[in-house]
Design a protein that fits this description.
InterPro entries: Flavodoxin/NO_synth, Flavoprotein-like_sf. This is Flavodoxin domain-containing protein. The structure is a single chain. With 169 residues, the protein is an alpha/beta fold. It contains 5 helices and 5 strands, in the order βαββααβαβα. Strands 2-1-3-4-5 form a 5-stranded parallel sheet, sandwiched between helices. The longest helix is centred in the C-terminal third of the chain and has 17 residues. The protein is globular.
Length: 169
């Protein structure tokens, strides 16, 4: 069976909700999918992992930094600021056989808003020398959310698309 791991960074829960919807779409598509918070993500990925999906909120037109992450976690009242997806990528080796995809949550789509998903794709290229198979953005209505109407449905559909692609490899 095809295996997928979704590693997500989320302070307000919106990016996590998208990750859960993507996982549901993957599972509906016949993929064994698991969602893990970046704080609990393994530093060594299993060699038989078929698909790795990384998700983060967009902060200041890119990936969260230590400062923006701490501020968001304080606003969310969670008080826990992790090393984030960027830090995790710097210390993890992804098996060559694993396909990677990335997503983010963003207040609006467009060049002005930037994209954490595109920053993840660049980091994967820089640190791992690999291309990202798919990059998607999902809209939140404000920095704390909620998700815009239909975004969880779109995430589920994207998960199904990823499953169909992964199952044909």
């Amino acid at each position: 069976m095809t295996r997928a791991l979704i590693i997500v960074e989320s302070c307000f829960g919106n990016t996590r909700a998208i990750a859960d919807s993507v996982a549901a779409g993957l599972i509906d598509g016949g993929v064994d999918a698991q969602v893990v918070d970046v704080d609990e993500a393994p530093s060594c990925l299993p060699a038989d992992l078929d698909l790795l999906i990384l998700g983060a909120p967009t902060h200041n037109r890119g990936l969260p930094t230590a400062a923006t992450r701490a501020k968001a976690c304080a606003q969310a009242g969670s008080g826990k600021a992790s090393h984030g997806i960027g830090g995790w990528l710097e210390t993890t080796v992804i098996p060559a056989s694993t396909t990677a995809a990335a997503f983010d949550t963003v207040i609006s789509k467009g060049w002005l808003s930037g994209s954490a998903a595109k920053a993840i794709a660049k980091a994967l290229q820089r640190h791992q020398g690999r291309r990202t198979a798919s990059v998607r953005s999902f809209v939140v209505t404000a920095s704390k959310g909620p998700l815009a109407t239909g975004q969880e449905t779109d995430a589920h559909s994207w998960g199904r698309e990823l499953a169909a692609s992964a199952n044909t490899r």
